[in-house]
Write a structure and sequence with these properties.
49% helix; mainly alpha
């Protein structure tokens, strides 16, 4: 994360070391976890590799964006919450669990824990942005990778993730933040 406080430009994501682009294979595309385990989405930690590139790579990137958002406001991520609040029987080994539970079996527990996480997180968001930021996190970090992304985009043919809509939503929030700080 790069911060630009002097010229009021805010923050920009600066680490693209495992960037990927559809149709252009790179060696790290075959990695089971596309980055640090501490930020990996649940499906990757449970050993699931979605077939569709969009769900595998864009879905992972979106999870990272949502986790970064929660970290900036609260100092914690969904993964931190799972590790602290799920029983060892449900957690995979990569989350210091017993590794006895597969992704499909763990998914209802993950969804329930994620709902609690978002409910707790709302108090860390500014009042004026709480609902929109909460919805962004829900869409970006959904533990069910097949539901991660923009719901309207997911209904389209080919079920794209709709990652571009998140850029627009954050841009709108950024402009609103500038207005709120002037009040």
């Amino acid at each position: 994360m790069l911060l630009f406080e002097q010229d009021s430009k805010g923050a920009k994501i600066g680490d693209l070391g495992r960037a990927s682009r559809k149709g252009m294979d790179v060696s790290h595309d075959e990695n089971k976890i596309a980055g640090a385990v501490a930020y990996a989405p649940p499906e990757q930690v449970y050993g699931i590799t979605p077939e569709r590139w969009e769900e595998r790579r864009e879905g992972c990137d979106l999870y990272h964006l949502g986790a970064l958002t929660t970290f900036l406001f609260s100092g914690t991520t969904p993964t931190d919450f799972y590790v602290k609040n799920l029983s060892a029987e449900v957690r995979p080994r990569l989350w210091q669990g017993l590794g006895n539970c597969d992704y499909q079996t763990a998914l209802p527990v993950l969804v329930s824990a994620f709902s609690s996480f978002v409910a707790d997180l709302k108090s860390d968001f500014p009042d004026w942005a709480s609902e929109e930021l909460s919805q962004l996190v829900i869409n970006a970090c959904n533990p069910d990778y097949s539901n991660r992304g923009d719901p309207d985009a997911r209904r389209r043919t080919g079920k794209p993730i709709g990652i571009e809509t998140f850029v627009s939503r954050f841009d709108r929030l950024s402009k609103r933040a500038m207005v709120e700080t002037r009040k």
